[in-house]
## 1
Amino acid sequence: MGIRLEGAVAIVTGAAAGIGQVFSVALAAEGARVILADIASAQQTQALIEAAGGEALSLICDVTSETDITAMADAALKKYGKIDILVNNAGIYPIANIEDTDMALWNRIIGINLTGTFLATRSVVPTMKVAGKGKIINISSGTFFMGTPGLAPYVATKGAVIGMARSLAAELGDFNIQVNCIAPGLTTTPGVNNGMGEAMRDGVVMMQANKRREIPEDMTGALLFLASSDSDFMTGQVMLVDGGAARS
Ligand SMILES: NC(=O)c1ccc[n+]([C@@H]2O[C@H](COP(=O)([O-])OP(=O)(O)OC[C@H]3O[C@@H](n4cnc5c(N)ncnc54)[C@H](O)[C@@H]3O)[C@@H](O)[C@H]2O)c1
């Protein structure tokens, strides 16, 4: 166990699987107590953290639900009395051309990726303001920089969370709250395994400078930097961790 985040309390949305699971384990390994918020059970993530000697609390939480998000923040404050770090990670990335994107699909993508980020952020800012410090990390995507086709609503949300971070960085700077983003490249997770073919994944590797598939662990260095005091003078920024895919 490390100590960079000793005593800190972190919330990670979408913590049951993929990037959110690995990020939660990494935060806990540095001493943070982690609230694992997911629409699915995050018991497996909690077990991984506890097996390594860490502390976590898993909650069923749909990030599109104002009620669930309020309950999530309340549970964190009741158990730990503070929230130091929020990782807005829950997200979906269904592939569909624009003419095949009906209102239900559009609203689902916007609801989880963008409104969820808004709701979770709004739920933690008051306590961070009182504490006079906080770290908010939005998970964007390299697709925003590449303009990846077949993902227009998704890419729009991933640009929007960068926009939100830039505005909030200015709004919350006087309260010593930093708001930054990590933009992953195509990363091996359950969501990608279920939704994307091997050819598409190999094609992305060929565009990268580092020619291997990205894994969530490739981003834990960026995560811990943005979650810790190492990044106290950096806000409103994006760390693009994609093996050098989006170079133009
Ligand atoms: N994997 C990639 O290639 C990649 C690339 C760029 C950005 N991202 C972003 O990283 C984040 C995580 O992606 P991943 O690949 O790990 O996804 P994943 O599908 O493997 O896991 C996503 C998790 O989010 C949870 N979730 C879904 N809807 C939710 C909701 N309404 N409320 C709460 N939790 C919900 C799921 O239950 C799941 O546990 C997403 O925001 C995604 O857009 C992923």
## 2
Amino acid sequence: MKGTEISDAHAGARQPALICVFDIDGVLADVAHRLVHLASTPKNWDAFFAAAADDTVLSDGLTAVKAAQEREEAIIYLSGRPERLRRVTTLWLAAGGFPAAPVHLRPDRDRRPARLFKPEVLARLGGPAAISAVYDDDDAVVQALRAQGYPVTHVTWANSAQALIGVLQDAQETTGRT
Ligand SMILES: [Mg+2]
């Protein structure tokens, strides 16, 4: 009956907060101004990443993060940006008014597409049962996560740059560099 005792002892315990997961590029950050660096041949990844500090905030993204915060969910930022962009990313989030929260970035030598990298991180965070929502703009990521049972909000609010966003998604899918 030990199991019963344990569950009784925890009957009044607060449930752990659900986690609300936010992609950054195309969800919180408007990257349209730097996608030109990926439209060239060869793609200029250094220039693309170097310009990340100058992204403008997507107001719909900020509103969604604040709403999750008001629901007392745990915020996680999950981006396919390489780990070496951690400092510029955390500074940008703070300057943009986003709440401080864990930032998960792609290991520098991990060249897999985001549709493989992101589910692995989410599984470590507890899988679909632990997640209230995942906000992402990448079709391939959205499909992969939905197939695994995650509640995904497919973000399209950066669609003024939709054609260019397609360039980024294509680049992520074929080279796994972002
Ligand atoms: Mg994105």
